[in-house]
Amino acid sequence: MYVAVKGGEAAIANAHRLLADRRRGDRTLPSITIQQVVEQLGLAVDRVMAEASLYDRELAALAVRQARGDMIEAIFILRAYRTTLPRFGYSEPVDTATMKVERRVSATYKDLPGGQLLGPTFDYTHRLLDPSLIDDAAVEEPAVKEPGEHVMRVSDILDGEGLIEGDGRMPEGHVMGDLTREPMEFPMARDLRLQALARGDEGFLLALAYSTQRGYGRTHPFVGEVRIGEVEVELDLPELGFAVSLGVVRVTECQMVNQFMGSAKQPPQFTRGYGLVFGQSERKAMSMSLVDRALRTDEFSEDIVAPAQDQEFVISHADNVQATGFVEHLKLPHYVDFQAELDLVRRMRRDYDAARTGSQDGMKEAAE
Amino acid sequence: MTDLATYNFAYLDEQTKRMIRRAILKAIAIPGYQVPFASREMPMPYGWGTGGVQVTASILGPKDVLKVIDQGADDTTNAVSIRAFFQKVADVAVTTKTKEATIIQTRHRIPEEGLREGQTLVYQVPIPEPLRFLEPRETETRKMHALEEYGLMHVKLYEDIARNGHIATTYAYPVKVEGRYVMDPSPTPKFDNPKMHMSEALQLFGAGREKRIYAVPPYTEVVSLDFEDHPFEVQKFDKPCALCGAENVYLDEVVLDDKGGRMFACSDTDHCEDRRDCGHAGHMLARKEAAE
Predict the structure, then answer these.
(1) Which of A241, A347, B171, B277 has the highest Cβ tally under 10 A?
(2) Is A329's CB within 8 Å of B41's CB?
(3) How many domains does chain B have?
């Protein structure tokens, strides 16, 4: 007996109620607080801030909790909030040379001004499950050292010798783009590409970066340096005539140094790939810098032979909020179009069967 | 943290609406041309109607009456969800009646009932570029549109005929608008294509993820691509609607049991209910009412 499907509204309300129930889980356990997420799942919070392009630890933590730990869902929630915020200006570029560095490592020099600082890293931990975490054992206070000499940027060391291209510069008169306020257009300049990569999906960029290491668009990279720490964000107020500090953000920066043999336009020198990400995420910053360098084909007259070098391919597919929406929209009803396809396949099938029985009859006649 | 989020009428801020309205005006001025616009993140996923929602949010006024359909029906979950969104953020009057609506947002169908002057049909568009599956690069397809270079599309349709004896495109069937731009009508079945031609209503198309808006103004020529010896044809159903007896409408196939039982009923639920209210009945109608 056929009864048309009704009651979508009630079904949706009930689904949301069930979702809230599953989110809360066992009511006999205390619920996690936003502060606990901020403090103890800090790297999840960092990733959500980075890919949502909104620096607010508490809102990001709220999104993580609301999304039941689903990172892309949390990123989506925070992005949808960010987009409603008024825009009152663009900050000055942050000066990472004056960063209050907590970690800085260079793979290109054994020792260098400012030294190698390991900081809070998973590197060199043995990935053994730690039973002491089950019982919440006491944790030692960290050793803290007074800040020492200026942590010089590795690119500045190389620059002194003239062996590396300068810091990236946009052509004279170039107005800095804003990915969130203008439609994308290709070919896309490096300022917009870097914006897209900075909010791009960590996993997608990681895979692309990895592909360049395996021969799909090699860039001959060395980690000039990775640094993590706090930088000041300043806004230039024309009314005041000077820049005022808006606060401090924690960022991860990667300067990749890439060997380059030279071209008709450029002398042999080291070139750069750049990565800058909110919070602490070396994986993302390093991937970003590898992909940034791979995408700079036009500047170095390189042939585009691999996916990581193809800006339309990379930039159009790096945004996980867009990607997850479009992939998951396939679960929406498509039965009107499917009906049209069903009709077509039935018709083609009839033609096919008719042609086959026709030719079989023909063969029988020939045999007789 | 507590003073989170108070939203403007119809969610989008007025600056954003202004930007979208400019894109819409440009789209109306150049029928069928895809106007890039700075699409916003919406509080629903990309691919779920964010383009249509942004267009609707930008043209919606407090006196409008909104109808939202998905697959022709007002009660499919995503249509319910989008309608609820506008009720929440714009407190606007909603209806399921095609006649009463001033704005109809749709996914995959055009209502059976002819639209009137003053009505606006807003389509949700997943892939606005009709040439996309022939040429994946935006830089190339924009050039092709600029040069009116549509040979590739005709070759594709010709190959269909060479292979199958007929054109094997059943939905998102390409159209030429006002003799200039080839346009994707969004994934509506080609059955609906003739309704776009010389429509009295304004037709707006929003693609949020792809950041494009395009339009067909009222009384505009919309021609489905074809060949002289293979003219464009729409789907035909060999049975009328089982509930209202309508012919020459688009039908959904409903599986009744596990023994191959099927029935065909109007995809446009409002049209079907209207006809039944006027006393029309299909052969399954009595059975259905008995079940209730």
Answers:
(1) B171
(2) no
(3) 2
